[in-house]
Specification:
Order of helices and strands: EHEHEHEHEHEHEEHHHEH
Mean pLDDT: 96
Number of helices: 10
Bound molecules: flavin-adenine dinucleotide
Helix content: 40-55%
Radius of gyration: 18 Å
Largest sheet: 9 strands, parallel
Length: 287
């Protein structure tokens, strides 16, 4: 079996120290030759500007293919279109097109911006008119909190592919069967494009639990048990995290999954060790 493809997701850092850590991580992960890397998008102006700067810098200074996340939240169509045109002109040919989390935070009620794109499918259609972007979208094997059923979740995903998306990346999950059930439902609904599992590399279990609760991701008690008593032992938590992630990837790979998208939390070590457990080694040894 050949080694799977990987992609890595980063977030825009808030401080100069975190910025240094991000670029160190980017440089350490670059030799793994990921398919692409992506940078998330916040709701405020300054964090958005940081995303644009990081994505443009990745395109200009690294061998990586960066994808800028972009959302419909708090912006007019023309503001979003300008970002897309700027990306294309800067050589950024990939985007991750999302509705976005409401400005008041995950769980708050979403209202489209007047004059903006209302949903991800509208944004995808708009981006397609601007340039021939490679467009990733989000999808939710455990069903998005705003969606009434798995069926409507899959219908929405199909709408995004019909609007021109290239691939979907899943919300993080821990049960392989959750992914396969969703995958089968999507295929049955006529989705033929790749559905790439998003693999979480958050070793802070309290933070992981908080995120999982907000997103509706179930954490198996077996995994919760592995972290039990490790609150003050980050080193062991990291080892557990890489093991859990690689185990999940291997279970998925056994059934033919050949691309994994890692939520890196801007840390290279966890991605490097998980990839190594999957048989993916850097082309050049990191220093
Ligand atoms: P959509 O696909 O637009 O769907 C959202 C909900 O609206 C669904 O329940 C759908 O059924 C419903 N809906 C869709 N179209 C219609 C319609 N025409 N009429 C009525 N209802 C409709 N958030 C950020 O803010 N920044 C990021 O960088 C970011 N990155 C992410 C990366 C990944 C891989 C994933 C999985 C999520 C990410 N998110 C990010 C979170 C995401 O923005 C939220 O989960 C958001 O609530 C939904 O976004 P979406 O693009 O999936 O929405």
């Amino acid at each position: 079996m050949s080694a799977p493809k990987v992609s890595f997701e980063f977030f825009p850092p808030k401080t100069p120290e975190m910025e240094q850590k991000l670029w160190d991580s980017v440089r350490r992960l670059e030799p793994l030759r990921p398919d692409y890397v992506s940078v998330t998008y916040g709701a405020g102006g300054s964090t958005r500007e940081r995303t644009h700067e990081i994505v443009r810098r990745m395109a200009a200074e690294t061998s990586l293919e960066p994808a800028g996340h972009i959302t419909c939240v708090a912006a007019t169509k023309s503001e979003i279109d300008r970002v897309l045109r700027d990306y294309w002109e800067a050589g950024v040919k990939r985007i991750v097109a999302l509705r976005g989390d409401p400005t008041a935070g995950i769980g708050a009620k979403y209202a489209p911006h007047p004059g903006g794109y209302a949903y991800a499918s509208d944004l995808i259609a708009g981006a397609r008119e601007i340039a021939d972007f490679d467009i990733s979208v989000g999808c939710y094997p455990e069903v998005h909190p705003d969606a009434p059923s798995l069926r409507s979740e899959v219908e929405n995903l199909k709408r995004k592919f019909d609007a021109g998306a290239t691939r979907a990346i899943t919300q993080f999950f821990f049960y392989p069967d959750v992914y396969f059930k969703f995958f089968d439902a999507a295929r049955a609904a006529g989705v033929t494009q790749p559905i790439v599992p998003g693999i979480m590399l958050q070793s802070n279990f309290k933070g992981l639990k908080r995120m999982a609760d907000l997103c509706g991701t179930a954490i198996p008690s077996r995994i919760a048990d592995l972290y039990d008593g490790l609150d003050n032992d980050p080193e062991t938590r990291d080892l557990v995290t890489a093991h859990v992630a690689a185990e999940l990837c291997n279970r998925l790979a056994e059934q033919g999954v050949d691309h994994f998208h890692f939520y890196t939390m801007n840390r290279a070590g966890l991605s490097l060790s998980t990839c190594r457990l999957l048989g993916i080694k850097p082309e050049v040894q990191p220093q």
